[in-house]
Write a structure and sequence with these properties.
It contains 3 helices and 12 strands; from the N terminus they run H-H-E-E-E-E-E-E-E-H-E-E-E-E-E. It is α+β, with helices and mostly antiparallel strands.
Length: 161
Amino acid sequence: MFLSLLLATNLYSQKYLSDKDFNLSPSAIYINDTFVKSLIGFNIKPEAGFYNVSKIDLPTPPIINGITYNGKIVVKTDKPIDFISLEDIRNQYFPKVNGNIIYMINQFFITKDAKSYKLDKDFIDRCELIPSSDFEALSNKEDFSIIRIFTKNYAGPTLLR
């Protein structure tokens, strides 16, 4: 079990991953039965209670929120997880923020399908709000906000394909 988790996290991690590649993850990622979009918001180490990673080949590609995925990856745990969406994070940390919002998780901009991301609420280290008015180059543009979420033990991305 540990070997499959280790192989999955090491074989598919990339030292330098672009925002474009991060946002084009080809596999639908699940924690048990919950679609989470990406593992960026989870500590999936065996000592954290995760014990199995498996890729499931499906007869037809899954389509979730209009996005077609090539396959399905399921990570198993017996640990209870308090899943939180990006919108829930906005409501909890920055309830007065309205209008256009760009999300970031660690160093990655979320450019597509923000509504599908779920994180482990207990794995969030901190969140910050950056208004577009902080950028000189955007002074004559419509206002928006960037909500950036930092996870605990952030050590770079893991992309499973």
